[in-house]
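ARCHIVE CARD
CATEGORY: sequence design from structure
SOURCE FIELD: tokenized fold
FIELD CONTENT:
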């Protein structure tokens, strides 16, 4: 095959991905191999690829490709989430453009639109993941609303209900007025906002006195049912047992006493609005107060709000303040910064609201899930998230699992009476009919008398069983797939869904399989811009990932992301990182073309220099591989990449290829070229999980391959022992070469001019002398027993001294002046260091590592001074 002069990501990526698909290399089915299983964190069906997806899925692909090469039966299950709130919001917005509202459609008509949307947009992000190189088993693609997954969700609800863990309750919830549904605690984000604190006077009934309260939400006085003071607050002792009149509505409400009141906040007097504040609800329960809900579902004021009916809550806030002022009961208004709950999905200010909802009891199912993480059965990387997990699990509240939406898994509760109290829980209507007949002994009940609960389940109620349901382990708990693939090995996810998803999956794993759902959880960081802002389209600070792939190639983007992130640490993204990744891809291609350009002959014997190079690189490769394997064990995936990066760029290209590179017109021994290709192949194997496209392309070009001989399934290299002493000797040899090259540069000595290097050493190590001779361009390297008497350039490495006789073109006075200047500086530095070390107070009080560091500075400086003095002596002869 003709080798292109330049690597072209665009043509390569499409060609190689098609090659993998046609070869069924991503496919997995149960067999006699050990499984390695990943389930993708399912992105929203409405979503498109963003930088967080790029990072998360690149890491997953690295893990699955490495596992495949290590001989595991690698299975990566892709899929998408129906995203109830987000998808429904899209449909509602679409209707609005048509001049329609959700209420204009029947439920069935609305769901038809939702399914059309899902079919049209659901596959977009999965196709984008293919461009990134993700090697998912696409035949296994799941959608949380698929029939079998929906049945699994229903079965789980029914099972938990009959275990006594699901119940219906009238509770205070977080209400999203934009989506018109309740949301969970974890879906509320608290933002610091600048608001106002309004001081209002409530007239005491039948008296000409007032009591003043302070509130940030004056519109809620429309729902006040009491005023509360602290029982020990002497300021209000005279009001015990009395009542006040709520302004605007003229409602007479009692003054109650409760030690919940903070006497130091505001006026120490609290208005009580039980239907719209969780703490007020608790007060109402203790004191037997009434509840007045003043809001419609969209947070406009209902009929309880008198003349404000139909107006938006924030509009009413402005208007009621004016009315309060006109009534003479507005005492003052202060600026007040406070935290406001905002819906994570719609960004709308949340309203606390009393509502009848379905809840899942958490205390029982939390226990094994908490133990599993704390005892190490499930490992977190980084482990700092264990403490966060323990805190949340220890304080977990019952999970509000119902949502007032149409798109989603409908709650399997069937009502058969006139009210909402007569119901049965069942997987199907037919089963509900049978249960109801047995429950009521009314055998005349018909299917037509049943109506299903209108609410749907929280989206997370389907995804918490994801590792089980994708293998049909809920409906068929003993099937071969779930028995083989479950539990999975690794989960890669963001820390922002630790509670939404990770914790709940662990709970469901023990609740339904009595096993952990995965062994390890790798938490990626959050991708941020250089100002540390989270990347988002709304801020306009997030590049389009597909544009990046088109510009830098998928491999370049993958490397750019991973070279700068560590588990649990945020990634400060800079597009320059992708350029660095593309340059690395070009380096691989150029090294490949260089190797392929060399000619060889099997009859040429291997030189001593080439033998040295081969021996060294063998040890260096296995040192790097050992470090890579160790990094993977602790999920330091970026560290592993950096090790491979250095192995290719520094060791293989900058040193190994330079050592063995034949001079113009020369031919390499066939054995050397074959081994070089072999080492290059091994590097490609290590790089493949990170850079799948260019490595597969290069692999196929390197030599003729049989059908099915793809890099993606080539065995991972085996770790072998290495000689650290040889590697240390090589490192010292590179330092010698570096010193000689630096001297050439400083003295403008051309590379073609051969130099002589004399070495004064106590422990002769000549293994890499052939390499030094070639790369430092020396005529000879001589071991001497004493310093040369003629003028020389010299340098010191460890205890060894190196001398290069000076040529005729050296400016001796200038060189002596330069060395004397350096000597004066080092002598001054030594004086400062010794003064510090002669201070007994410093030595006794400073940390030991600081004192050790200062003593090393003294020793190194003294050694440098001795060398400079010796150099000056040589030059002065």
């Amino acid at each position: 095959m003709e080798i292109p002069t330049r690597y072209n990501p665009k043509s390569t990526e499409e060609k190689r991905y098609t090659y993998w698909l046609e070869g069924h290399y991503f496919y997995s089915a149960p067999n006699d191999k050990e499984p390695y299983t990943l389930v993708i964190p399912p992105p929203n069906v409405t979503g498109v690829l963003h930088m967080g997806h790029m990072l998360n899925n690149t890491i997953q692909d690295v893990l699955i490709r490495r596992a495949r090469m290590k001989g595991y039966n690698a299975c990566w299950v892709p899929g998408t989430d129906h995203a109830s709130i987000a998808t429904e919001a899209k449909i509602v917005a679409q209707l609005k453009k048509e001049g329609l509202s959700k209420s204009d459609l029947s439920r069935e008509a609305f769901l038809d639109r939702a399914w059309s949307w899902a079919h049209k947009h659901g596959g977009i992000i999965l196709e984008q993941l293919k461009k990134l190189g993700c090697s998912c088993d696409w035949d296994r693609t799941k959608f949380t609303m698929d029939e079998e997954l929906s049945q699994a969700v229903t079965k789980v609800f029914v099972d938990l209900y009959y275990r006594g863990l699901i119940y219906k309750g009238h509770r205070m919830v977080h209400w999203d007025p934009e989506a018109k549904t309740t949301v969970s605690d974890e879906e509320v984000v608290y933002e610091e906002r600048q608001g106002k604190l309004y001081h209002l006077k409530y007239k005491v009934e039948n008296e000409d006195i007032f009591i003043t309260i302070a509130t940030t939400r004056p519109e809620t006085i429309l729902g006040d049912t009491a005023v509360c003071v602290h029982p020990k607050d002497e300021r209000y002792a005279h009001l015990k047992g009395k009542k006040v009149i709520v302004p605007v509505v003229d409602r007479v409400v009692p003054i109650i006493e409760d030690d919940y009141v903070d006497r130091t906040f505001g006026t120490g007097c609290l208005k009580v609005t039980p239907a719209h504040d969780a703490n007020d609800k608790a007060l109402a329960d203790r004191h037997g107060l009434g509840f007045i809900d003043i809001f419609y579902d969209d947070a406009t004021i209902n009929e309880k709000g008198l003349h404000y009916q139909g107006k938006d809550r924030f509009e009413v806030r402005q208007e009621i303040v004016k009315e309060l002022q006109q009534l003479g009961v507005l005492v003052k208004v202060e600026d007040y910064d406070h935290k406001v709950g905002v819906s994570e999905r719609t960004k709308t200010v949340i309203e606390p609201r009393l509502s009848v909802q379905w809840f899942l009891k958490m205390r029982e199912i939390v226990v094994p899930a908490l133990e599993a993480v704390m005892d190490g059965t499930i490992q977190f990387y980084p482990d700092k998230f264990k403490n966060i997990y323990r805190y949340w699990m220890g304080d977990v509240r019952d999970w509000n699992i119902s949502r007032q939406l149409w798109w989603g898994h409908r709650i399997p509760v069937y009502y058969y009476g006139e009210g909402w109290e007569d119901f049965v829980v069942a997987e199907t209507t037919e089963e509900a009919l049978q249960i109801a007949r047995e429950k009521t002994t009314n055998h005349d009940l018909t299917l037509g008398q049943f109506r299903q609960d209108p609410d749907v389940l929280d989206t997370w109620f389907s995804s918490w069983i994801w590792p089980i349901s994708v293998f049909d382990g809920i409906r068929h708990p003993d099937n071969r797939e779930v028995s083989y693939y479950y539990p999975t090995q690794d989960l890669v996810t963001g820390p922002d869904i630790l509670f939404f998803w990770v914790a709940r999956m662990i709970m469901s794993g023990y609740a339904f399989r009595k096993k952990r759902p995965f062994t390890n959880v790798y938490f990626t960081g959050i991708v941020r811009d250089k100002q540390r802002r989270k990347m988002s389209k709304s801020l306009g600070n997030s590049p389009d990932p597909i544009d990046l792939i088109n510009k830098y190639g998928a491999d370049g983007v993958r490397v750019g992301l991973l070279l700068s992130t560590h588990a649990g640490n945020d990634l400060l993204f800079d597009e320059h990182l992708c350029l660095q990744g593309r340059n690395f891809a070009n380096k691989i291609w150029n090294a490949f073309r260089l190797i392929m350009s060399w000619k060889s002959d099997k009859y040429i014997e291997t030189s001593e220099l080439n033998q040295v190079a081969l021996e060294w690189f063998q040890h260096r490769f296995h040192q790097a591989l050992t470090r890579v394997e160790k990094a993977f064990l602790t999920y330091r995936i970026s560290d592993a990449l950096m090790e491979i990066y250095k192995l290719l760029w520094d060791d293989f290209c900058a040193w190994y290829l330079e050592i063995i590179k034949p001079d113009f017109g020369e031919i390499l021994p066939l054995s050397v070229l074959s081994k070089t290709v072999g080492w290059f192949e091994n590097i490609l194997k290590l790089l493949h999980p990170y850079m799948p496209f260019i490595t597969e392309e290069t692999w196929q070009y390197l030599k003729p391959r049989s059908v099915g001989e793809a890099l993606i399934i080539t065995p991972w290299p085996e770790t072998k022992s290495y000689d650290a002493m040889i590697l240390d000797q090589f490192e010292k040899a590179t330092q010698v070469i570096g010193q000689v090259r630096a001297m050439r540069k400083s003295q403008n000595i051309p590379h073609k001019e051969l130099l002589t290097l004399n070495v004064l050493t106590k422990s002769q190590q000549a293994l890499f002398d052939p390499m030094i001779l070639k790369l430092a361009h020396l005529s000879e390297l001589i071991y001497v027993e004493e310093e040369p008497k003629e003028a020389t350039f010299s340098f010191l490495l460890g205890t060894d001294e190196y001398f290069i006789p000076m040529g005729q073109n050296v400016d001796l006075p200038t060189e002596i002046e330069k060395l004397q200047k350096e000597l004066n500086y080092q002598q001054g530095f030594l004086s400062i260091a010794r003064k510090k070390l002669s201070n007994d107070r410093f030595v006794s009080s400073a940390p030991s590592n600081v004192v050790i560091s200062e003593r090393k500075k003294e020793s190194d400086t003294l050694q440098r001074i001795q060398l400079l003095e010796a150099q000056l002596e040589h030059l002065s002869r």
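CARD ANNOTATION: The first helix runs from residue 9 to 22. The two ends are 63 Å apart (CA to CA).
SHELF: design records, drawer C
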